[in-house]
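FAQ: What does a multi-protein file look like?

Like this. Sequence, then tokens, then the next protein.
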Amino acid sequence: MSHTDSASYWSEFRRGWRPLAAATVGLSAGMSLNAYVTSIFGPYLLEAFAWSKAAFALMGTLSLVTIILIPVVGRLTDLFGVRVIALPGIIGYPVSLVLLSMLQGDIRVFYALILLQTIFCIGTTTAVYCRLVAQAFNRSRGLALAICACGPAVVGALASPALTSFNEAFGWRAGYQVLAVFSALLGIVTLLLLPRTNREAMLVQRRERNARKDYATILRHPAFWALLTGAFLCSMPHALAYSQIKLMLQEHGVTPMQAGYMVSVFAGGVLLGRFGAGAALDRFPTHIVSAVVMGLPAIGLFIMATDNAPLGLLVLSVALLGLSFGGEADVLAYATAQYFPIAIYSSVVGLLLSAVGVAIGLGSTLLSYTLTLADSFSLFMTVAGTAVITGAFCFLWLGRLQRTTRIGEEIATV
């Protein structure tokens, strides 16, 4: 990158710092925090109300509603703008935390609160906030999206030990309440940072938008199917990444202490993959970076499918899984902006994220079934590795697809 190109690259951050900051803080104040705080409060709730682990785990099935909600909220974001769609979640998330602090033991009330939280706060997710970044950045879009996506992880990593200590000292109810205050303060900062929506432009946008025409255009575009199929196939191993890494490693004879360190390797890989993918997307062809980043787990999965893999190769496998897990959000967000106009950005991202959710659910079912058949992770590793390779070729196919004049003419950008 020449000096002139470098100056142009970093100048986008000077111009676009406000939408980037709004998106990063907004993601860090909403539903994305659940991935880090739910496991903190779980043991306290089980001890306080004598809930079973199975009953508490059932809460995870409520997230399936996001498969339907994310495409809807994506479409609404394109029609009404980020501020309008994010506002219910900015208000609703801290309110939901306060209500959770008032639980009296009926787990059905807990389920209802989690469901309402999901419905009202779905507007605080990447399908909404990443639109700000994609619209404000061009040359440095990949790195900007990486920074945005890292917000909740950084907040979660810093807040988790502090929140655990606070719960031990003052109780889980106070923990929920202080988290609500923290979320509300970040929500206020987000609202102050969010660029003002051009109401007249959005009104014209709504008048001109036709859902049937827009979705027909999306579904006719070959890039959409390449992205959708690739995202679906490459997300199959996520079922393993979410909850089974330690068990899988112990199947290879890794000690619990070693497995704990390797989970840290996975977390480090996620962070490195997020920034590495973002920076690479800004410098190299989208289809090459996407295929490499999304295809990395195949190597690790095939290694882990073998018997008696050396410890060093197992560490490499876990690291590759983390790199891809972290880079996926950048790839999908960046490629969508590369092949589709901003006017329908969130509509496309919503569909892709929904496909990822379906893949994780099916992957979990497949994992359970293969464990029943063989009581070993090897069969799932082989199947998932094959799916990932196929998905990587789907992303590679993007290289033959260019953003056509026709789609740019059919859907005006705003």
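And here is the next protein:
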Amino acid sequence: MRTVGAVVSPGPRLRPARPGRVVVIGFAVATIVGTLLLMLPISRPGPGGASFIEAFFTATSAICVTGLIIVDTPVAWTVFGQVVILVLIQIGGLGVMTFASIVGIAVVRRLSLRSRLTAAAETKSTGVLDVNKIVGSVLKISLLIEGAVAVVLFLWFAFALNYPLGKALWFAVFHAVSSFNNAGFALYSDSMMGFVTDPVVSLTLSASIILGGLGFPVLVQLRREWRRPLRWTMNTRIVVAATISLLVLGTIYITAIEWSNPATLGPLDWPGKILAGFFQSVQTRTAGFNSIDIGSMDDASQFGMIALMFIGGGSAGTAGGIKVTTFAVLLFILVAEIRGDGVVNVFGKRLSRAVHRQAIALVLLSVGVVVAATIAIMIMSGLALGPVLFEAVSAFGTVGMSVGITAGLPVGAQLILIALMFLGRLGPITFASALALRDREILYQLPKERPIIG
């Protein structure tokens, strides 16, 4: 019997996943796949495979382009395992959703709306319609820079250092990808300490790291309008100015403090000291290589490097940290407050008050995460504040530099570092996107009142 006039409920509708959430899921899936591949016997020399924590830590470090390790990369992994690490670094540097978009464009020549939204959130595109162009530019820039770096390193390894051609090619490609993506994974057990006074290797890797740390939006604009700086956006101007300033200040700071340290720069001549100081300053852009022993550096040097690692590099790129734009915004707010200005002006433009709130919220949350993780690791390991804080900031800033305590930490502490790497790579992206999407018009205002500050 048919009931007339009955209303059939359409049932609950599935809500599309938010872009930030999709990015997190994408990175999580890539990490799981990488972990499983690294646990295969073919990934590890000798009988058996890697343990879960070794594979999980390494996969997370690679996909989050960090570089922290608990096993020696050239010793603990076969060529297959190293290839897996390299692929994870490349995917993590481009961004999982950006990489998926590249594959989608290559296969079906177009992207769905959801794919456009997630790629836009990851690359900081200005709109959904330009995602195809942005993703294409990201791929071209990445391959161009990595290819150029690989060619220089290959020629140097093969003809100056007399590596066999196969080894020279593999080492060149691996370190080109690792450096541009600010990953810090190396195929040398002592990282780059063997090249501390080698200007070709040190400067080539440094150039690759700096370019990767600028962020793709900046690289795309510089590629198109590098001769017309007056047409650069506020973001590009801030990133370029802050990057140059921090590199110069970091070089002077590290070189001056370590100049006479017999365990670091002391034995080098003055050109070697300047080169090594510059190289380590570049690594604080979240790269993670080291040409001197980080654990033997002066406490003041390590503290300065902690600050630089926390700041990080440019947004929507391969660098980590709170990003130089966030730091610059806070600096401009501070200057405006000291001067008593009613608004914050940056390079002839007024800064939106929404950006003020987002920058402050992001920094406070980041500080809270690092402090909580540092306390937890100190309790678990019984180690002092200095080395634990360095390791925690290195993980959160996806830097990868280490004072040498990571491998000896308890498993619980290593899991905390894994969480920090994941949060450091994805937290700023998803949190900033969430804040931007939560803007809403308020139809009323409450009465003003000022608490006592200071």
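Q: Is there any per-entry metadata?
A: Some entries carry free-text notes. For the entry above: The chain has a mean pLDDT of 84.
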